[in-house]
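seq as requested:
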Amino acid sequence: MSLTVVRTFFNPRNKPFKVTPKGIDNRSRIQPNWPLMRPLLVLLVLSVGGVLRQVWSWQEVVRNPDSLAVNVFWATYNGIL
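struct tokens:
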């Protein structure tokens, strides 16, 4: 890939760029790829469950008061991504 970038830099009009079709016929209908989404959804559920468990047991054991904030931050960050 680096060689292609260098060649294009020195001779940009050497080969034209061809756009290939991506197979999307109907752009108004979005179809999620469930086999790829399942592991991410499992991780999201586990993250939310872990934060809820920590919030629920917060009054029973207080070891590190900042741990809840860190866990909520990372669970939210990962959920958004």
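The two ends are 28 Å apart (CA to CA).
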